[in-house]
Amino acid sequence: MNAAEQPQDLKPRTKAFALRIIRMYCKLPKNDIVAQVLGKQVLRSGTSVGANYREASRDRSKAEFISKIGDCLKEAEETQYWLELLVDSGCTVSARMADLLDEASQLTAIFTTIDKHAKS
Fold this sequence. Notes:
This protein has 4 helices and no strands. The protein has one domain: 23S rRNA-intervening sequence (de novo design (two linked rop proteins)), CATH 1.20.1440. The relative contact order is 0.17. The chain is elongated, with a radius of gyration of 15 Å. With 120 residues, it is mostly helical. The protein has helices at residues 10-27, 33-57, 62-88, 94-119.
């Protein structure tokens, strides 16, 4: 599957996801060291999803495309993990993270599908 066959909404969708992650991070308590450490992790992984997708969109070879889509999948899953830790550690309430967790889960499913199709 090449970039022309990709859903057109993924570039803006992954960018919107990154912006939501940035806004979430900015709202975390500055005096809570755990929240800041976990927040920085989610900030890194959550903003990487879209960056890696843009690189995948410029696929120069099938192998490169598959590699970058794999990176998107890895970062989406990692983002989900850090968001879960923010909630499970008590740094924030689950209601605040529900939409972000849902989007991370949806992106993981999308990139899993793209990855499987690209490999077949």
